[in-house]
Amino acid sequence: MCGILDSSGFKAYVRGDNLDQLVEDLHEYKLVVTFNGISFDVPWLRRELGPLRENAAHVDLMHVLRTVGLRGGLKKIQKTVGLDRGDDLSQLTGRDAVNLWNMAQNGEPNALETLIRYNAEDVTSLPRLAEYAYGQNSAGTPMAVPGFFSPVSFDTSSLPYDRALVQYLCR
User: Fold this and answer.
1) Calpha distance 51→56 (Å, rounded)
2) Which among 4, 2, 10, 45 has a CA at the least distance from the CA of 28?
3) What are phi and psi of 6, to 5 degrees?
4) pTM for this structure?
5) pLDDT band at residue 54 under the 50/70/90 scheme
6) Could you give the 3-state DSSP secondary structure of residue 32?
7) Regarding beta strands 2-6 and 9-13, do their DSSP bridges make them parallel or antiparallel, or are they unpaired?
8) 2 with 118: CB under 8 angstroms?
9) Average pLDDT of 64-73?
């Protein structure tokens, strides 16, 4: 499963439901922004779906953020730049996401909705991380734009998740 955030909101794509629609939907975009997408998301999606929109620009924020000294996983970087959500979902890792998917496949009733919420939280942080990276990389140059910000946001609190399931995974 994966998600897209744009000016119309967040959309989840789930294997066995609507993942095939992702290939068509990606044709609407000239730019794709991910975190570790070059190494993980894109290869996985290509194995699942075949060729993707190959002519779209791809910014992998993991690599961009390394240029300003930020290393580690998405949660660690979110915390470092002040984007830690401070909720129980922020304790989950990529490994937990895989566990949630497997639990959903094995019939755990709230695992898929929890995985979708987890993904939405991650995807929603990407525009703010892009702003941070741009600000850090452009500081002191003619390209620096005070107050540069992405118009894209999404309130993830509207998506349900199973708190007990998250606590079980984080035990």
Assistant:
1) 12
2) 4
3) -145, -170
4) 0.86
5) confident
6) strand
7) antiparallel
8) no
9) 94
DSSP state of 139: T
Q: How far apart are CA 43 and CA 40, in angstroms?
A: 6
Q: Which residue has the tokens 């979110």?
A: 78
Residue position matching structure tokens 């991380």: 129
Beta bridge partners of 12: 3
Measured CA distances, 104 to 82, 116, 148 (Å): 31, 11, 39
Task: Write down the pLDDT at residue 159.
Answer: 87
Token pair listed for 166: 């998250």
Q: pLDDT category, 56, cuts 50, 70, 90?
A: confident
CA-to-CA distance for 28 and 71, rounded, in angstroms? Answer: 31
**Helices in 27-170 by DSSP H: which ranges?**
42-49, 61-66, 74-80, 94-105, 111-138, 163-169
CA–CA dist 35, 133 (Å, integer): 12
